C-alpha cells in the first residue's frame, strides 16, 4: 500500500471523494476481516470497538472528529458540516465515564445522510439507536452525560481504536470489527480482497472433496521442522 501521510482537507474539498454505492456494497460484502488480511493485516481497530447492533454492516468515507474526553461539542459541529454518505469517526480518547452520543444525535445524523458512527468512546440510548437501524461502533455504554464546551478538530488526521485515519479514508465495520482502508489504496485492496475470497472459495471446494488444511496451506514442512508428525 502507498505510504500514508498526514492530511487535512477543507470540508469543501471532499465533494469528489465519495466512493460509489457499488464500491461500498462490495466492501460490505467482502467484510472487515478479509479487507484486513488483503492489505497485509493492517488497518484493524482494536477489538474494543464493537458494533452496537451486530446485524448491521457499515462502509463509507470518514469524516474525522477529534474531541475532548467527556465533551461532545465537536460532534455536534461535525454533523453540521457532514455530507450525505459520510461516516463519523470520532476520537473520544477512549473515555468510558460518559456517553457523548445518544438518540438525538442519531436522529440528527440520520437526517443529515450520515451512514454511521465509529467512536473510540461510549454511547447511550442503545435501544433507540438499534431501533433506528443506524450503525454504531463503540467501546460500550455509559448513561452519564457529557459537556459541550471544549474545542477540537474536524476533518484532520486522528487515531481511533489504535489506528491512524485521515479524512476521506474508507472505514468498513461489521460483526467482526472495524478496518480502515487508505483512500488511495482502495482499488488495490478491493482487488486483493476479491482474490483472497476466490482462493478461499477454492479451499472450501477442496475441503469438501476431502483435502486437509495442512496441504492447502503448505503446513507439513513447518510441522516437520517443529517435530510434529
Automatic annotation (TrEMBL):
Species assigned in the record: Salinicola endophyticus
Transmembrane segment boundaries: none
Cofactor(s) the record lists: a divalent metal cation
CDD domains registered for this protein in UniProt: RraA_family
Listed NCBIfam families: PRK09262.1
UniProt xrefs under InterPro entries: RraA/RraA-like, RraA/RraA-like_sf
The protein's name in its UniProt record: Putative 4-hydroxy-4-methyl-2-oxoglutarate aldolase
